[in-house]
Amino acid sequence: MDFLTTVLLLLVGAGGGVALANTLRKRTGITDVRRDSVLLLERIEKVFKVVMAEGYFSEIYNYQDQKKILYVLNDPKKAMVIAKSKVLVGFDFAKVRFHAPDNGEKKLVIEFFPQPEVLSIDTDYKFYDIQAGILNHFSGADYTQILDEAKKAMNERAMQSDLPKIANNQIQYMMYQLASSMGWQLQLPEAEQRKLDALKAQAEEATKNQSQLLTGQ
């Protein structure tokens, strides 16, 4: 076998191998996809935030933007977003102001206690019915604006629900129980103290009723 024949056989073999590899790749659906990500840590902060209530919400958000071509023809674009969120409501204890009496009395006086707030919103967004205009197309900034507005609407809906009230009741009763277990007396601001006293009365009544049911009286 001469040199030319050997080269031809090698080329044919190599070509056949490439063709076979391509065929197998197409049949198995294997694609070579590479993704790169970079994680940037901006800062770490110490916080003292306590979650007292958790709620789940679904929201349908309709976005529409009207744009005129040559100030005459409408060129609208619109999209519908379905958002499902888990909302955590609680308190930032860094905002609490309190003191203990100088006479050594086991009493914790709360001078100021913050209102409940949304601590986090974990949302899953899905876009439906996206319709771009002829010249009025969607940009990355448009999608960012839509998600920001949908998240803002979810925040407002959560604060208008029963979550803040539930969180308030939870934190006050928890603080009362914790102070009592350590032999301390808890004194809240007047308005909050009335709420706490009402909660304590309800808890005592519920315990009394449960005891009567167990004893059959």
UniProtKB/TrEMBL annotation:
This is DUF4230 domain-containing protein. The lineage of its organism: Bacteria, Pseudomonadati, Bacteroidota, Cytophagia, Cytophagales.
